[in-house]
Amino acid sequence: MAVTEQSVRSPSSNRSRFARLFYDATIRAIFLQVLTATLVIGLFAWLIYNTMVNMQERNLSAGFGFLDVSAGFGISFTLIPYQEGDTYLRVFFVGILNTLLVAVVSIFLATVVGLIVGLARLSKNWIISRIARVYVELLRNTPLLLQIIAWFFGVFNLLPRPRDSVVLADSFVLNNRGFYMPAPIPEAGFGLVLAAFVVSVLGAVAIYRWEAARRDRTGQAFPAISTGIAIIILVPLIVHLAAGSPLSWDMPVLQGFNFVGGMSVPPSFCALVVALSAYTSCFIAEIVRSGIQSVSKGQLEAAGALNLPGNWTLRRVVLPQALRVIIPPLISQYLNVVKNSSLAIAIGFPDLVSVWMNTSLNQSGRAIPIVAMTMAFYCLVSLSVSLAMNRYNRSVQIKER
Amino acid sequence: MTMIFEPKADRPPPPSETGLVAWLRQNLFKDIPNTLMTILGMYLAFTVLSWVLDWALFNAVWDADTRRECLDAVGRSGACWPGVVEWLPNLIYGLYPKDAVWRINLGFLAFVLWMVPLWLPRVKSKVAIGLMAVILYPFLASYFFLGGEKGFVWTALIAAGVWGLVWVWATALCERATDLSVGAWLGRRIAGSSDEQIQKRVRQGAALLLYVICFGLVSAWSLEEVRTQFWGGLFLTLVISGIGITFSLPAGILLALGRRSHLPVISMLSTIFIELFRSVPLITILFMFNTMLPLFMPEGTDVNQLVRAIVAVCLFAAAYMAEVIRGGLQAIPKGQYEAAASLGLGYWQTTTQVVMPQALKIMIPTIVGNFIGLFKDTTLVSIIGLFDLMNMARAVGEDTDWLGLFIEPFFFVSLIYFVFCYAMSSYSIGLEAKLSKGRDR
After folding, report:
1. Which residues of chain B have a CB within 8 Å of the CB of A154?
2. Chain A residue whose CA is closest to B299
3. Has residue A96 been placed in a domain?
4. Residue-level pLDDT at B243
5. How far is B339 from chain A, CA to nearest CA, in Å?
6. Which CATH number fits domain B60-96+229-441: 1.10.3720.10, 1.10.10.10, 2.160.20.10, 3.40.50.12780?
7. pLDDT, tens digit, for every residue of B89-144?
8. Same domain assignment for residues A133 and A38
9. What was the pLDDT predicted at B139?
């Protein structure tokens, strides 16, 4: 009976020394890790060796020396002054600033639209919630790149020529060359207005802090938020008027075949921002909806039992609890906007990927430093945001004893 | 005389509180602001809908040879569908040779056939069928799509694919008819004895015989090679996303386990990989692989552009999937691990039989959400020059006959993407409801 014989043997006595080593947890752990490390290091060594051989073959260099070299190509839209002869390093910063501009504008618009759509989805009005749902499902289930390209080729490229452009309030102009708006020109004394603005913001924050402390101590309420908003708007306005309105506007004017003056963004920027914010707003809407729905009904009933006024229920009961659920996925959507802005390359907007990882890479051929710098930028943004995020998260999480 | 209280029947609620009227009053015309919102919403819905329908159907041109004819007929107020119709084969199959398109159809038909038993009632070996589809179907499909010379190993793998398909249907039919697995049935019927040993021999013999037949068939069968440069359209999109989905789930599971591992080296390596790939946009990874993979490989290796794209998509998707799975793993209470440990289960047994099934189950909606994201993200391969569905749609407007025809193909292609994504998300909602029945009982 072979079976019984085998089961009678005790595992420790008859196993060879090798088997005992094999079954020892510590030894196995060390062995596994050494094996993995060797494999990974080996893989990297192989890749680096291949790369070095290939680079020698093609006469490429991996250094960062090219950053001081003149780039020699133009960029259609820049936030900082840039000319064709400027260095590659400057191209890098132009790209970063363009990426950040797209991201900031889109994040702002997406948050506003997303909030409205999210609340509309919760509306008790059947048709409003239906419309919001259709909006979300339609935009969420089609690829972002397709939307960007469709907005660009289907809408912003088909706009009328500058001659027949759409003009809003004599100052906002939309045509197939882009979107024009008045540019503010600060004059002497405008620094005073800015200073007043900074001071009033600080004051408003101080009032809010004082109010929170007093509410905790005495339980008495004070309309700190509305007071703060009033201060932030009124004080700089009064200073502005008192200083004799030291700000003039540079209006876009039709001159020949095109508009000049003012600030302008190209059609590719408009298409990118519209598509990005519409697409992201769907996800934000869903996040807002699930966040508000996550507040249990008992909380609302408890607030009702305490006879809290309606806006207090919202501000002091629902929002603090909903925000706890909303903020983490919201931040990750914001990070997605930064990452998705790289799709600008498909419609030729000069963002970091387009101007740096594509044009500069093809011009200079320094694949390795360029790829590394691009990735480092995105990693830096992600890591710093998630660090800030984790700190915030720790402060709003339920403190359990 | 005893009085017995007999309650009268309730009066029916007033007509304003039941049926359609009440519903309308509750949901559409509760008070004045609500009514205003309803009117605004209806106006908005009506405007958009009538505009889209007018453009896409009522004012549309269905018969024309060039875009000029469309513009002459209706201008921009109606869609110009003939361009899309003419490009339809390209939108779906890319530049795949016309006389070989049946191979794509047959390849996808094989997939559907493979999957049908999963939905048939009374079929028990669904896990095995699903695993077979993941492991063996790719060999079959790749030969259908790619064709060309096949060496001995390649023939053997393709034969395994054919074998798998036959096995799946034999199992499904047998289990439906007799409630026995095909092996057990064969053992009973042919061997006719209850001896386990003989039954096992018969089963193995039958499987081997079937494989030999498949091998013979496959070696006799040859298809002409279609190089990947000609792949495109919906076909290419499905190939890339299919490979990405099939790769990302197991790779994500391994990475997530690695990140939670107690072994510092493994957990550190997994974490670095996941964080690096998650913090950069997919397009930079695609670019990196497109420009750097030829540098990484030994001199003279020629890496196909499609392969570069697929490698990038797979690694990217795996990093995202890993974080999803990790979320599922974190939601499993510690008691489950302790219970498994007290039963004497080791690491792999605990993982595969206790923890992972639960983690995957609670994460189904997120996993499918990731699949949808991956499917949409495959459009990015167009930026490195592959002609996927979206890039094909863009190419329509660059055809000389249909110059500038962008909106119509984009509309059509968006519809395709929408149908796929919406179907996936609806299916995941259904699956979630079905699986949570046991929990909510």
Report:
1. 406-407, 410
2. A54
3. yes
4. 92
5. 20
6. 1.10.3720.10
7. 889 988 888 888 888 888 899 999 888 888 887 777 778 888 888 888 888 888 88
8. no
9. 87
Residue where the block lists tokens 């519809």? B415
- Asked whether residue A30 falls in the same domain as residue A106, the answer is no
B407/A342 Cβ within 8 A = no
- Domain check: are A11 and A114 in the same one? no
B187/B142: higher pLDDT:
B142
Contacts B406 to A, Cβ<8 Å: 150, 153-154
* Amino acid occupying residue A132: A
Residues of the domain holding A37: 2-43
Categorize the per-residue pLDDT at A4 as very low, low, confident or very high, splitting at 50, 70 and 90: very low
Give the CA angle between residues A102, A104, A110 to the nearest 5°: 95
* pLDDT beyond 50 at A81: yes
Q: For strand A253-255 and strand A258-260, is the pairing parallel, antiparallel, or unpaired?
A: antiparallel
Q: State the Cα–Cα distance between residues A284 and A249, nearest whole angstrom.
A: 35
The residue type found at B352 is T
Q: How far is A191 from chain B (nearest CA, A)?
A: 39
| A9 and A123 part of one domain | no
Residue contact A125–B291, C-beta within 8 A: no
If one counts the domains in chain A, the total is: 2
Give residues with Cβ within 8 angstroms of B27, minimum separation 6. Answer: A124, A125, A126
Using CA coordinates, name the residue in chain B closest to A346: B383
Q: Could you tell me the residue ranges of all domains in chain B?
A: 30-58, 60-96+229-441, 100-225
Token pair, residue A321, equals 């609890």
In a domain, A370, yes or no: yes
Alpha carbon dihedral B31, B33, B39, B44, in 10-degree steps, equals -140
A193 in a structural domain: no
Preferred mutation among A26, A31, A33 to probe B, highest tally of B CBs within 10 A:
A33
Q: Do B414 and A142 touch (CB under 8 A)?
A: yes
pTM summary value = 0.85
A14 and A134 together in one domain: no
Residue A12 lies in a domain: yes
3-class state of residue B149 by DSSP? coil
Q: Are residues A275 and A363 in the same domain?
A: yes
- Contact residues, chain A, for B281 at CB < 8 Å: 339-340, 342-343, 353, 378
A145 contacts in B (CB within 8 Å)? 379-380, 382-383, 390
Say whether B283 and A343 touch across the interface (CB within 8 A): yes
Cα–Cα distance measured from residue A289 to residue A136, given in angstroms and rounded to the nearest whole number:
12
CB contact under 8 A, A375 and B288: yes
User: How do residues A206-233 score in pLDDT, each as one tens digit?
Assistant: 988 888 888 888 877 777 788 888 888 8
Three-state secondary-structure class, residue B392? helix
Q: pLDDT digit string (tens) for A158-207?
A: 777 777 777 777 777 777 777 887 777 777 777 788 888 899 899 989 98
